[in-house]
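Hey, can you fold this?
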Amino acid sequence: MFERLITHWVYGGALAGLLLLMLFPLLTAGWSMPLALTFLHLPMYMLHQYEEHDQDRFRTFFNRTVGGGKPVLSSLAVFIINVPGVWGVIVIATYLAVLHEPGLGLIAVYLAVVNGLVHIGHALAFKMYNPGLATGAALFLPVGAYSIWQFHMAGVAGFVAHATGIAVAVAIHAGIIVYVRSRGAFEGRA
């Protein structure tokens, strides 16, 4: 049972993302704009993940390009990165924005922005499309920029909030690099 969840999580996520988008106006009615935008990053990310992981495209592509053909990214790693590592982080950011400091919603925003930039960087480095590039560039960057502006306009985007958001997003992506390096990625490359 868990093996099927680990290998097919993206399909439930895509459907949940569509459902959350349809419910978004009702769920966020009365919320501040920064809080609503924090939450919006969850279904937006779920739809991005469908482009990225449908038919195991990202793992296969990543292992071929970054791993040099080695299985440096397993199905379990992809699940952990995307479900607790993305969905969980966005849920935590939403709770932190409500219960502690509204600006901490920027964790969700920068997670998406950094991911979009990584997809673009990967496309430039390998001179080819990578799974997730279209939604990373077309959704994450403009919605992320708009979100950052809205946080600023609401007066909840101080230095600490920006620094925390960027630090968490970069740390998650750096953790992925450390993990795949430990599995043999980048060996023999300058």
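Oh, and this one too while you're at it.
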Amino acid sequence: MQRLQIVKGFLILTMLTMNISAFSQNPKRTETVELNGLQTYFEVYGNGTKPLFLLHGFTQSSKSWIPFIPGYSKEFEIYLVDLMGHGKSSPFTGTVSIKSAAQNLKHLIEYLELDNIQAIGHSYGGEVLFQLALINPEMIESMVINGSCGSWNAQDFPEFVKYLSYSNIENLTWMHEQQVNEERIRNILDQVPNYSVEVNEAELKSIKTRTLIVVGDNDDATPLECVVKAKLNMPNAFLWIVPNTGHRSHQDKNKDLFIKLSTDFLTRNDW
């Protein structure tokens, strides 16, 4: 009898813990706002006061950052944004433009009446942050760039263009989980061959934002020489090369360490 009560007590405690955890994952705000004729969807989480924007990669959506919310929620107020063309935001209507995506993010930050933000961007999200730092240097207090060096041209990576095509959709399983419908998936993949962005040396030197650049040592989508170029030219940049990992160096086995080091970087100025 006593053993049965202990088991019941354990089950109740487990269920309560699961409910608390699930509740903590619920956004405290969700909104789709129209900015310059484009709809932008975002969610807000966290118990902290410092605004932290988490920006996803191309073909992903804000859902890709949901597993990271518990790790950042104590220190930050977390903003998950569906970047231009993705998730519940407006689809691409012309050729993909990273600068336009950055302009749209700027309008969102202004709509939210935030003086400045801290941000983490993966791949496409990182390139958007590079552009935002050029458009409005005062808007980003500090940023973590993962799997990006600011410049990328799809025509230099034909194997990625082939991989990220609708003919290969059966291997792009995450897209059905993160995009709203099949039409949106096609819309995104149609833009892959057009993806091009460049930040030259003079522009890199003008970015004064405290920046931690993170790259996997086996990242075949982000050339190390491009990463080093960014690190050497940006006056307030730091570099973390993650061993034995590829393009998504913030995920899976590296997730906890990534959260710890990125939080440390964003909350301290003595690096």
